[in-house]
Amino acid sequence: MEPSARSILVGYDDTSAAMAAVRWAAELAHDTGAGIRLLHAWTWPLLGQGLAGIPVLDPAGPRNQASRLLDDAAERIAAQHPDVPVTAELVAGMPREVLEEASAGADLLVVGTRGLGAVLGTLLGSVSRGLLHDAGCPVAIIRSDQHRAGPVLVAYDGSDTAGEAVDVAADLAAAWGSTLRVVHVRTVPHAPYDSGGEAWEAGKGTRVLLDEGVARARARQARVEVQSRMLEARTAAEGLLDAAAGARMLVLGHRGLSRGRFGSTAHATVLHATGNVTVVRHAPEGRSEAPHEDVM
Question: Any bridge partners for residue 112, and if so which?
Answer without folding.
Answer: 142
